[in-house]
Design a protein that fits this description.
heterodimer, A: 579 residues, mainly alpha, 25 helices, 66% helix, B: 764 residues, 39 helices, 0% strand, globular, dolichyl pyrophosphate Man9GlcNAc2 alpha-1,3-glucosyltransferase activity (chain B), transmembrane (chain B), EC 2.4.1.- (chain B), endoplasmic reticulum (chain B), transferase (chain B)
Chain lengths: 579, 764
């Protein structure tokens, strides 16, 4: 029904021409009105009301904004992770200390370990914070949790997330298929990942993904210099976006700095280089001049952590670690006694999900291995991107770069899955294959974020919200792109995927009931059963507490299966896609 | 759908603009799909060239008189669309997918053309009559379509847009589950906040009271329940609450016994026990209140479109005051309200005994349900009168027996075979505490408001006050109750009817007497108004009222509100929204004390956006709108004052008192309004019934109704009520528009009846 709308003038980037599906247009018997619509839209574009169109929100867009804001307001008193205190401490650091001491302060254990732009950002926010309640920015006022600081910090998340909202609006306005893009935009703005990580757990991902999407939008609108600029800015906000840097590098080099024939365009290259260097200079310059760069970098890249996080991020290593655990059981039973057992590995397993992972049976993994594997995989996609430097190819390669890092990276945190889910959403409605990948990855990815909120009160919040989001996102998109599987292997794959998705409710049921049942049985464990954050080594338990980690381990492994599968799926689709 | 929707591009002609094209598209295409009418596709498929004439020219060469003939308009007092629909006539609802009445049939081709275009332009295809009339009168107005389109877009709320979106994207079966899930989410999220008395030893608050009851019911024998340490939150609710508390306590202490250990658990506050307590509220709400709401919507709005029903459900599910009190402040009001609602549903389906039992259960859960008792009692009495001398007394006895039996069953453990005769006094004295003050805290009722000037407690003794309060209360609910009884008596089935019934018996072979008792009385549409009158009069005038009891008048008011879909200009809409916002506002001191300020703001915004209400619209159109503007501004100003200034030391209660003084007149107004509406509706019910009596022509129609749309309950009886007065008065009221849609099809079997039947079928 929406197809009538498919003719709004697009951002008219050459790369996005692959979008307009001709069959959609041909299904329209009367194309006449489209002209009028086009004229109208052109008039709009040409007129001076560009700003008005920027600010103008349709009622449905107001609806989403108001409703989501109200819902987020309700979450003010919800659980907060230590990240909340981390950010409060950074407010205090940037407000009370001179810039030369920012990266040296150790008053709190939560030292500043984000790049300078984020520190500037905190500095900016600390000004209103001081006027609201001076105790917020008191450096020694650790673990301050008055209502004022909660309300202030929570509202900064909501306000800064408007960047994301604005960019998503721009995405929808200039899209070829506006209705679909509107669904995708809305789904991104209301993404349960943001709700869980930003509005409950507490971080500023919405803001930063807003910048990332803005950069992608600039790429779509063929303004690649701006795209590069914004990405450089983003890198200086949070360095985790380096996962995506290779795709940016190749894309900008190939499609901006080189002519299609392969000749270098020096002016473009120099302008891009200057822009990026300028951004980095603004960010790092003060620290460079003060000679603090090594200290800063040592804060940003602490290489002292283990392969897995306390709660295994659902990636390849989670599967490998789980395989190791299973093999250990087998070996212990004497079935495979020829294999040597690493004693520290055995100790490692008995401690549950502790920071540093040492395998008992399998050979150990070192950071350099993970690095090599990541680079090897990324090279494949980058070669493809080099050959087909279109916008869509770029977004796919971007997603896959992030995904590779997530899959094989060293000490990956589960929150990093957002790096995959956000750009992947942009591709969701391209075809059924993409949609299916998106669906599996989203379900598994969002589910893998659930253990972040381990308190019983938030269980319902995250589960119900994610379910609603899934229904309201998947159902309309599904009806747009559905194709039935055409051959037997695909039928089987289709069935297996459905079976996999059906397993999630059961898993959630287990994860919910397990603590209740074990606490009844044990009776002695008074505190929260499944605290993933607090398990850092000191809570060494025996059999009973090992059982406590079972739901976590299951969640991690089950989600890893889906994410690895979706990763392979997208890789194959990308490699085989003709651009 | 897709095929038909492609024709919609017609709409692009009329200088349409970005915002609402899509929306208009749907409503139109769904109309087309809903219609099996031959003329309709014809209208749509006309060659574009013909359609593309400038508006003026179409009109000018079209048949003028047809267009410019005045469209009959409802009388302004009946314009609120909810009464006709509870009387059984489908009203033009903006979100319904049913085709508009076929008054274009006689018109010329071009006329229908312009009609359809106008409908497209307006996007809310067939909104209010007023709007249609305007555009009929001045077709050239379409030049300003863009602006007005934006207006009408804003007229609908978020809920309406969402329901429409869901239908458009093929997810209509998901609407109800999603609405329920969303409401559960909102409820639980409110529950993340603090509760009444959190962290305030030694007495804590309502949360601790409920928890304490769970604690004492599982540890003490029943006879001790109403006696144990009364100073510390002694049990003062009726037995059903005690039984439910017992069950919750049992499950809770199975999970963790320390939450409900006798005495030692007083003031237990930890995240797990809080989660458990919140869960008990959520579950009891989900088990009792949500199904009751769903049934209500299905029954009372049975002859409205699916979208209207869903919208009504959404509106009812997210009533902010109830959610904030139950899930924020912590109480179990929704159980009592749900049981009362279930009683209403039963009455509408004709299961009076079941309804009575349900209401008794509600009473047994929370004595507050007494506020409804006059209305419900007089409805049932009125029905007995309506049934006439033969059936009536039998029905009365049946109801009396059932009610008494269920009441006795509830109190069974405190009655003689199981306890000494004096034991019954314990719960009774606890439940009805006449030894407390005239009012507690600051409550927006008559006593508290006038106490500012009159100082009642200084002038009159406690006994006099009780008597005075009782008299005033009785006087307050009398109009509603009397209306129900009197109307029931006035439209009673005459002996002739019985004969007529015998007639039918021979025809259809069913037991008429049973059928009459098993169907709702025609006075049913009066019931919500009477409930509102009686509960509001209790709230305003009775002794010992809490501010939370405003929830009771709010329930019938929200029910009335849920039936209104064409917002603009409807009196019920204006009054309902005003009062529900003011009710929430009157709760502010309480919510502020509980630390629920942010939730209060969020829920107020959310709900008003959901239903699409904005008191600060640019140009208020009526007195009511001016009033609502003033009141809302007053609320806002009070909030701002409270935010920036602290009250002077002499008057620490300044803001609560100002709150009371602002809220009470509004509540008084709605009380008077409910009386006026009951009079109007009861007059509409039986106005001409006296002379004609329930004559035979209505009966077959009655039967057709049932056959045609399969709706039960209200829709069945109500058409009969209307059919009776299908003569002169209806027309004189300007009622023809609404009437034609209902009556003509059924009588003549014209195209539109086929249509409506089709749409009914499609809805299922």
């Amino acid at each position: 029904m929406q197809r009538v709308q498919a003719t709004t003038p697009s951002g008219s980037s050459p790369s996005s021409r692959s979008f307009p599906d001709t069959h959609k247009q041909s299904s329209q018997p009367e194309p006449i009105p489209e002209h009028e619509e086009t004229n109208f839209a052109e008039k709009q574009d040409g007129s001076t009301s560009r700003w008005r169109s920027w600010l103008y929100l349709e009622p449905s867009e107001w609806d989403i904004l108001i409703a989501s804001t109200c819902l987020k307001l309700l979450l003010f008193p919800a659980y907060r992770s230590t990240d909340f205190e981390v950010h409060r401490n950074w407010l205090a650091i940037t407000h009370t200390l001179p810039i030369s001491k920012w990266y040296y302060d150790t008053t709190s254990e939560w030292t500043l370990d984000y790049p300078p732009f984020f520190a500037y950002f905190e500095k900016l926010m600390s000004i209103p914070a001081y006027f609201i309640d001076p105790r917020i920015v008191d450096l020694n006022n650790l673990n301050y949790d008055a209502w004022s600081v909660i309300a202030f910090q929570r509202s900064t998340v909501i306000v800064t997330e408007l960047v994301l909202g604005a960019v998503l609006l721009r995405f929808a306005r200039g899209a070829v298929d506006r209705t679909t893009q509107r669904i995708i935009s809305a789904s991104l703005f209301l993404h349960p990942g943001f709700l869980i990580v930003d509005h409950i757990h507490f971080q500023y991902n919405g803001f930063m993904f807003g910048i990332l999407l803005w950069s992608i939008l600039m790429a779509r609108e063929d303004n690649k210099l701006a795209s590069g600029l914004l990405f450089a800015v983003l890198l200086n906000f949070k360095h985790i976006y380096m996962y995506l840097a290779p795709a940016y590098f190749i894309y900008l080099l190939r499609s901006f700095c080189l002519a299609p024939s392969g000749a270098l365009l020096p002016t473009r290259f120099i302008s891009l280089a200057n822009v990026v260097i300028a951004v980095f200079f603004v960010s790092l310059g003060p620290f460079l001049l003060m000679g603090q760069l090594p200290q800063l970098l040592s804060r940003l890249f602490p290489f002292t952590r283990g392969l897995n996080h306390a709660y295994w991020a659902p990636n390849v290593w989670a599967l490998v670690t789980a395989a190791d655990r299973v093999l250990l059981k087998v070996v212990k039973r004497g079935a495979l006694d020829m294999m040597s057992i690493n004693e520290t590995g055995v100790a490692s397993t008995s401690r549950g999900l502790v920071g540093d992972t040492v395998f008992a049976v399998l050979p150990n993994v070192k950071p350099v291995h993970t690095f090599i594997i990541t680079v090897a995989f990324q090279t494949i996609y980058l070669v493809k991107l080099w050959r087909a430097p279109t916008y869509k190819s770029f977004v796919t390669a971007l997603t896959l770069c992030g995904w590779t890092s997530f899959m094989f990276g060293w000490h990956v945190h589960e929150k990093a899955i957002l790096l995959v889910l956000v750009p992947l959403s942009l591709l969701a409605a391209d075809s059924h294959a993409y949609f299916r990948t998106f669906m599996i990855a989203s379900v598994a990815g969002v589910f893998s974020l659930f253990p972040l909120l381990f308190t019983p009160a938030e269980t319902l919040v995250k589960v119900v919200y994610s379910t609603l989001w899934a229904v309201l996102t998947f159902a309309p998109l599904h009806s747009r792109v559905y194709e039935f599987p055409k051959s037997l292997p695909f039928v089987i794959i289709d069935g297996l995927e459905k079976l996999y998705l059906a397993g999630f409710p059961l898993l959630q049921l287990l994860a919910t009931l397990f603590p209740v049942l074990t606490s009844r049985k044990g009776g002695a464990s008074p505190s929260t059963g499944t605290n993933a954050e607090a398990v850092n080594g000191d809570e060494v338990g025996s059999g009973a507490s090992a059982l406590e980690f079972l739901p976590l381990m299951l969640t991690s492994v089950y989600c890893a299966v889906g994410l690895v599968w979706a990763f392979l799926r997208l890789s194959v689709i990308y490699i085989r896609q003709q651009y | 759908m897709d095929e038909s929707s492609t024709y919609i591009t017609v709409e692009g002609l009329s200088s349409s603009s970005r915002p609402s094209k899509r929306l208009s598209t749907t409503s139109f295409s769904s109309q087309t799909s809903a219609s099996g009418q031959p003329s309709r596709p014809l209208r749509l498929k006309t060659p574009l060239s013909q359609v593309r004439f400038p508006q003026g020219s179409v009109i000018s060469h079209g048949s003028g008189p047809d267009i410019l003939a005045p469209v009959p308009r409802k009388h302004h007092t009946l314009q609120a669309s909810e009464s006709p629909h509870w009387l059984g006539s489908p009203t033009p609802s903006a979100s319904s997918s049913r085709p508009v009445s076929p008054f274009s049939l006689s018109g010329s081709h071009t006329w229908s053309e312009s009609m359809s275009r106008r409908r497209l332009n307006r996007q809310l295809s067939f909104s209010s009559l007023k709007e249609q009339e305007q555009s009929l009168a001045s077709p050239l107005l379409s030049a300003h379509n863009e602006g007005r389109k934006a207006d009408s877009e804003h007229a609908g709320g978020m809920g309406k847009r969402w329901v429409r979106w869901m239908h458009k994207h093929g997810m209509k079966h998901w609407v109800v589950p999603c609405a329920v899930l969303a409401s559960v989410w909102v409820k639980w999220s409110i529950g993340l906040g603090s509760y009444s008395g959190q962290g305030t030893p030694p007495m804590y608050g309502d949360y601790e009271a409920q928890r304490h009851w769970m604690e004492l019911t599982i540890h003490l024998p029943m006879r001790e329940w109403y006696k144990y340490d009364l100073q510390y939150w002694g049990l003062d609710y009726p037995p059903l609450t005690a039984y439910v508390s017992w069950l919750c306590g049992l499950i809770g202490s199975w999970i963790n016994a320390s939450w409900f250990a006798l005495d030692s658990s007083r003031g237990v506050e930890n995240p797990e026990s809080k989660t458990y307590m919140r869960t008990t509220v959520l579950i009891s709400d989900t088990v009792v209140y949500i199904p009751a709401l769903y049934l209500f919507v299905r029954t009372w709005h049975a002859n409205r479109s699916a979208r209207t029903q869903e919208l009504a459900l959404l509106t009812l599910l997210l009533q902010p005051t109830l959610l904030l009190i139950d899930f924020g402040h912590f109480q179990y009001n929704s159980v009592m309200l749900g049981l009362t609602l279930f009683a209403l549903v039963c009455f509408a389906r004709g299961h009076d005994a079941l309804g009575a039992v349900s209401f008794v259960l509600g009473l047994g859960f929370k004595q507050m349900a007494l506020y409804y008792a006059p209305a419900i009692g007089s409805y049932l009495l009125g029905k007995c009168l309506y049934l006439g001398s033969a059936q009536g007394p039998r029905h009365f006895v049946r109801l009396a027996v059932v009610t008494t039996a269920s009441m006795l069953l509830l109190f069974l453990p405190f009655l003689p075979p199981f306890a000494p005769p004096s034991a019954i006094l314990d719960p009774i004295t606890r439940i009805f505490p006449f030894n407390r003050g005239l009012f507690e805290d600051k409550v927006a009722n008559f006593w508290c408001a006038s106490d500012v000037v009159l100082k009642w407690r200084r002038r009159l003794g406690a006994k006099t006050l009780v008597r005075l309060a009782t008299c005033l209360t009785a006087l307050g609910f009398l109009p509603g109750a009397a209306g129900l009884i009197y109307s029931g008596w006035r439209v009673r089935l005459q002996p002739r009817t019985v004969a007529n019934g015998d007639d039918r018996k021979t025809k259809t072979g069913c037991n008429v007497g049973k059928a009459e008792a098993g169907e709702p009385a025609p006075t049913l549409p009066l019931l919500p108004y009477a409930l509102l009158t009686s509960s509001m009069s209790f709230f305003l005038f009775s002794f010992q009222v809490h501010e939370k009891t405003i929830l009771l008048p709010l329930l019938p008011l929200t029910l009335l509100l849920s039936g209104v879909t064409s917002n603009e200009g409807s009196e019920t809409w204006e009054i309902g929204m005003l009062v529900s916002n003011v009710a929430l506002f009157s709760m502010w001191p309480l919510l502020k004390r509980d630390g629920l300020g942010v939730s209060y703001i969020a829920m107020t915004l959310l709900w008003n956006r959901l239903v699409g209400y904005n008191p600060f619209r640019t140009r208020p159109g009526s007195v009511l709108q001016y009033l609502s503007l003033i009141v809302h501004t007053g609320c806002l100003v009070l909030h701002l004052l409270e935010l920036f200034f602290s009250p002077p030391a002499r008057y620490p209660d300044l803001f609560p008192v100002l709150n009371v003084l602002l809220s009470t007149p509004v509540f008084g107004l709605v009380w008077l309004w409910s009386i006026r509406r009951s009079v109007e509706v009861s007059w509409a019910l039986g106005g001409l019934g006296q002379k004609q009596g329930p004559s035979s022509p209505t009966e077959p129609k009655h039967a057709t109704t049932r056959g045609e749309n399969g709706d039960l309950g209200a829709s069945v009886e109500a058409p009969a009520g209307i059919g009776r007065e299908s003569g002169a008065r209806a027309v004189s009221l300007g009622y023809a528009q609404g009437r034609r849609r209902l009556v003509r099809p059924r009588r003549s079997g014209s195209i539109s009846s086929v249509l409506s039947a089709g749409s009914h079928r499609e809805r299922k």
